[in-house]
Amino acid sequence: QSVLTQSPSASGTPGQRVTISCSGGSSNIGSNYAHWYQQLPGTAPKVLIYRNNERPSGVPDRFSGSKSGTSASLAISGLRSEDEADYYCAAWDDRLSGWVFGGGTKLTVL
Amino acid sequence: QVQLVQSGAEVKKPGASVKVSCKASGYAFITYDINWVRQAPGQGLEWMGWMNPNTGDTGFAQKFQDRVTMTRDTSINTAYMELSGLRSEDTAIYYCARMGSTWYATGDNWFDPWGQGTLVTVSA
């Protein structure tokens, strides 16, 4: 059972906008930044969004992040087939003194 | 470019230990913490612990505290994670991941980049 809660799956058609949510608590997302990682099939995760809403260079601006209270969201607009991947949220947890992840959301592009 | 290259796949028997290496290049090895994260087959990501390559200080998830050791060899820019008392549930891909920035404290930081992963299979 993951400390951060994500829906196991999400889907959309090409060009659509999809949102993936991540629910935490006061000791993690509520008091620290949320980060998002994309894991393409058979590859290592890579950072997609860090510190709630910042994009590393090379990540398209179709990807955006936000945080409100103890929840965070990842939005993908102009959905493309290559966006089909697993998406994980993460945050530092002050109570556990460690990093916690969501269980991951598998995004399917129909 | 900044890169983490991990050692190859391992097959171990229950009760044995495994030591995975993570060789860093493209940056000053001692200036960024290294974390270890694992992923069981078909499952999500699980954080195991961190190590400061400069001081050797470590911190572990409670689940692994009694079984994991994290060390480094600064002469060859390599971090190591050793897990003992292996059981079938430890079968997973083990990733090393560097902290993304030296500007921020741990809680404000993120993982970037990640190593390619090392598959550890525990089987009798």
Produce a short descriptive summary.
In chain A, 0% of the residues lie in helices and 47% in strands. By secondary structure, chain A is an all-beta fold. In chain B, strands 2, 4, 5, 6, 9, 10 and 11 form a 7-stranded mixed sheet that branches. In chain B, strands 1-3-8-7 form a 4-stranded antiparallel sheet, with no helix packed on it.
Which helices and strands occur, and which strands form pairs?
The complex is a heterodimer of chains A (110) and B (124).
Chain A: E1 5-6, E2 9-12, E3 18-23, E4 34-39, E5 46-49, E6 63-68, E7 71-76, E8 85-93, E9 98-101, E10 105-109
Parallel strand pairs in A: 2-10
Antiparallel strand pairs in A: 1-3, 3-7, 4-5, 4-8, 6-7, 8-9, 8-10
Chain B: E1 3-6, E2 10-12, E3 18-25, E4 34-39, E5 45-51, E6 58-60, E7 68-73, E8 78-83, E9 92-99, E10 111-114, E11 118-122
Parallel strand pairs in B: 2-11
Antiparallel strand pairs in B: 1-3, 3-8, 4-5, 4-9, 5-6, 7-8, 9-10, 9-11
Plain-language structure description:
Chain A has 110 residues and is mainly β. In chain A, 0% of the residues lie in helices and 47% in strands. Chain A contains no helices and 10 strands. In chain A, strands 2, 4, 5, 8, 9 and 10 form a 6-stranded mixed β-sheet that branches. In chain A, strands 1-3-7-6 form a 4-stranded antiparallel β-sheet, with no helix packed on it. In chain A, 43% of the residues are buried. The model of chain A has no long low-confidence stretch (mean pLDDT 97). With 124 residues, chain B is mainly beta. Helix content of chain B is 0%, strand content 48%. In chain B, strands 2, 4, 5, 6, 9, 10 and 11 form a 7-stranded mixed β-sheet that branches. A 4-stranded antiparallel β-sheet of chain B has the order 1-3-8-7, with no helix packed on it. In chain B, strand 7 (68-73) and strand 8 form a beta hairpin. The model of chain B has no long low-confidence stretch (mean pLDDT 96). The A-B interface holds A 2, 32-33, 35, 37, 44-47, 50-51, 56, 88, 90, 92, 94, 96-104 and B 35, 37, 44-47, 49, 59-62, 95, 97, 100, 104, 106-117.
